[in-house]
Predict the 3D structure of the following.
Amino acid sequence: MKAFATLFNRIDQTTRTTVKVAALAEYFATAPEQDRLWTIALFSGRRPKRAVTTTRLREWAAERAGLPLWLVEEAYPVVGDLAETIALILPPPTRTSDHPLTHWITVLKEIAARPEPERKPLVLAAWEQLTPTERFLFNKLMTGGFRIGVSQKLMTRALAEATGKEASELAHRLMGNWTPDTVSFHDLILGDDLGGDLSRPYPFYLAHAIEGAPDALGSPQEWSAEWKWDGIRGQLIVRNRQHFVWSRGEELMTDRFPELARAVDLLPDGTVLDGEIMAWDEDGPMPFNALQKRIGRKNLPKSLLRQAPVVFAAYDALEWDGVDRRDQPYSTRRAQLERLLAAATTQHALRLPPLIAFDDWPDLARIRTTARDNRAEGLMLKRLDSPYLAGRRKGDWWKWKLDPLTVDAVMIYAQSGHGRRANLFTDFTFAVRDGDDLVPFTKAYSGLTDVEFREITAWVRRNTLQRFGPVRQVTPEHVFEIAFEGIHASPRHKSGIALRFPRMSRWRRDKPVSEANTLDDLKALLALYG
Amino acid sequence: MTRDPVLTFTDRGIYCPAGDFFIDPWRPVKRALLTHGHADHAHPGHASYLATRSAAPVLRHRLGKIRLQTVAYEQTQRIGDATVSFHPAGHVPGSAQIRVEVDGECWVASGDYKTIEDGLSEPFSPVPCHVFITESTFGLPVFRWPAQDAVARELLDWWRNSVDRGVTPVLGAYSLGKAQRVLSLLTEDIGPILTHGAIEATTQVLRDQGLRLPPTAQVTPDTKTKDHLGAIVLAPPGALGGAWMRRFGPVSTGFASGWMQMRGVRRRRAADRGFVISDHADWDGLNQAIAATGAEKIYVTHGYTDIFARWLREGGLDADVVPTEYEGETLQDSEES
Ligand SMILES: [Zn+2]
Ligand SMILES: [Zn+2]
């Protein structure tokens, strides 16, 4: 674990991409092959099965550290990371060891295989022989979510440097269903045959946001436009009479959306489509809220399938006849997509939303203002002669979203943040006016600068009216502009309203509380856009 | 008849009715007793000041012409009906806990303190009392300071590494206390030490009162890095990332603070390296210090007050939180405290 801990420290101690890539490349060139494979797995979101619940981990760590459990639970939100909290509170190790990363993963698998009462001594024994950094990493492996400042893109770059392979090819190799138990480093990274995994998707091409207007993109004739939907980006794969649905987060979601099983009848083998998974009823696209009810549900009652039917709105074809077509121009791919879906009708879960015809940029700008009426969040622009690239690359795909909706709201509660903002008040609850009352309707965490957060933190300390555990009720004095992407009715909220992606877009120092928006204003927005 | 408590918490600071004075007040008062010279404790505008002899030069340097009376550690004096003495807090050179006794009842206001010896500040000495007002800046069990020689080695490694890569290491440290602390950790093997003007001035004040610190050279508009190959630069955190840094070309930035213990805070600073060096007591330090006072009543201020007070109560002490509105400004990790 020493080499892996050193790698982690080198990555963690710098903000420079080049230094991170160099550290990773060096690790990939020197670490044992199985450790390399696991490192790739971890940095691409694959991890060993959870061996112990976080509840148990907290209990054992508190006991080992001689602290009451509540104190560990209070410290956790301040640190913002359970693995780190535990690593910090445990007494120093009593012995040292230097087993490779793979050894500790084997230990974790062993722990997972044992009945619950036998797990504790194994975890304690591991803590006894790991340094604080190694403990943190070990705990991370146990609790999951191995995000430590290494994106998959960055790792792919380092791997390219270490192996001499193209980064785009590596990105494709790393997609899909593999785990370190099912593939060797050699087969995954260096082997000739890429076809082993039927479900393997392609790396997604991600669009950049347009700043201002698209005039700088050149001639409108070189571009195609379509609505930008608010769903889940996905890939639909049909190979060997099977279908697979991947989300952009590289999650295999085939079983969540039984509606898409029809793809096997509608598409030939060797087809991969890029598109948006959306809830869509006879009136058209539904708000993201509807789709959200479907995600995270393992069993799908008939009523829910009826309430929020899912479709795949296709907008690109990446593979047909079993051949990777990503280097073909977009216009060719789109034409093929239209041929493939010619048979699909509006009755089917496979949709082909039409392109939007426009004469010039001002014309398109006018069309964009009608996006909300079309239940879209803006426009997508794609260069007609562009290949399908991997990752977020500037130039060929642009999203041109509508400006967010906004309301001016009054801050009424404050709570300190966690992790990197542990010592600042960053989590706020906002209210709108309703007669003489203030009705809370949303929380927001982001959007202010560090300087503004510091200023509001000092203010909160001086203007606390009451404390409820970590939450402080503050004098209703400051008005903030809250920006959000969508609004819908929610019986769970006191205001009856829930927002999508709320954030503080401006501190309205110019506005007194009496000029903040009202509950009626919110209801009007709900009627318009809900 | 109930009598006044020895010390009370007011919206101007800690107040002693029997002696009619304030401790570390943040609004102008007639008579202010100061624990130390940090900005959140030493405010300008009071009619008269009282502080330790070794805190005086920095106070004069920072507050200019003030009516300042000084006192030696442990020396008692009568103010009104109160008996007052200053005791080493180990926080920064000259820092003190203030002991106030009225009619045989004794309270101690800790100010900021740390229990480990830094070789510069007068070492913390526990003062037996009935009531102890403690800070709790790092009052969570996740704060345990690493051995200082290990941190000194990390500093040296970072310097060597930076120099090898052809970049200048620039370390952010507050000008009073932290900067001198870092200086004392830098061994003789290190190259020239360059300082920002604010640090140089405070360091010189402390040198003049007898503190032994390695030689430093102030960065001026004429400073050229090529004249100081292998140098390390010390600057106040505010200067990090600013225009002042440009003269050094490519740099590696570091930051010295107890907050660097937390990975999240370390990353927010966006410095390349964080070094866990604090002038406040860590979890163990706070607990040891409180136990050593023998106090039965504890007031907790500045920091994780609610959590720390609950912990103390479970340990059998009568602990309360000083109401926030009577806490004064709490400074953030980017400002000195
Ligand atoms: Zn302070
Ligand atoms: Zn201080």
Observations:
- The pocket of zinc ion (ligand 1) is lined by residues B 38, 40-41, 112, 337 (CB under 6 Å).
- Confidence is low (pLDDT under 50) at residues 330-334 of chain B.
- DSSP finds seven helices and 19 strands in chain B.
- The radius of gyration of chain B is 20 Å.
